[in-house]
Specification:
The protein is an alpha+beta fold. The protein has 7 helices and 7 strands; from the N terminus they run βααββββββααααα. Helix 5 packs across helix 7 and helix 6 runs antiparallel to helix 7. Bound molecules: zinc ion. Zinc ion binds next to helix 4 and helix 5.
Amino acid sequence: MTVARALCMAGHGLGKLAGAALLLLAATASGALAQTGGPTPEGYAAQANGAKIVSPGELRLDGRRMTCGQRPTVIDDQLDDYGAAFPGFLILNSKLMARVPTSVKLWIYAHECGHQFRGPDEETADCFAVQRGRRQGWLTPEGLEEICAFIRPSKGSTMHFSGSHRCEAMRQCYADPKVR
Ligand SMILES: [Zn+2]
């Protein structure tokens, strides 16, 4: 099963999310599963306490309408990361999202949407997100720096290199006129 997860710099969410999905797979009839073999939004929301499904086109982040094709978003405030993606739907933790600047919120959503269209690779999803932000006008160079600050781990973290590397790759994508 493909589990494309969010932000991916902390490294602690994947096991839990995959574990929840496996439990869900074991606990639900095949009717609850999408053709991809992963959970459906309804199936996911049913096993996540207090989760709710936002229909495609109805999600707003800081007043901006967010869309990702015809994919719904599940709001799951128990998710142990800001966002995540299963094939066919996105997941956001609205409590964590409330703590970050608008540019970071929109980038997280677009990053998860990038997984829907471009697959599990993190750098590709990052690139998709910043190019979409540039095209749609919500991502300025200052906003990109806010995103870099967001993914920059605390000093001494072993993930430091990976955060800086992702930021550098995003700067290049943002400046690249070719859409990847
Ligand atoms: Zn990701």
